Amino acid sequence: MLKGILEGCILAIIEREAVYGYTLSKQLHENGLTEISEGTIYPVLLRLQKNGYIVGEMRPSEAGPDRKYYTLTPEGKQALEQIRKEWKSLVPSVNNILFKEWYDDGR
User: Fold this and answer.
1) What is the mean predicted confidence (pLDDT) over 14-22?
2) Residue 23: count of CB within 10 angstroms of its CB
3) CA gap 103, 74 in Å, rounded
4) What is the pLDDT at residue 38?
């Protein structure tokens, strides 16, 4: 299930600032998605790039080789807004189903 929302999370992080793969992985982990490995992130980045949602640009690094930084395209911003709308409408329904007993018990 997490894989289904991972693209949205990645797009949201890239929307805030241009990032490279390791930084993206670190930000996901800092936000509680610790089970997401770098090996999972790179195929998603390639798919997002292929779909025209992000672009990658090689930039010099202060420590080591150049790094590929990703930025959002206008199409990526539209896709992210659609993901946000779908997520916002989905969350209350899923919470109602998963936690109905909690709500009924006043938890």
Assistant:
1) 96
2) 15
3) 40
4) 86
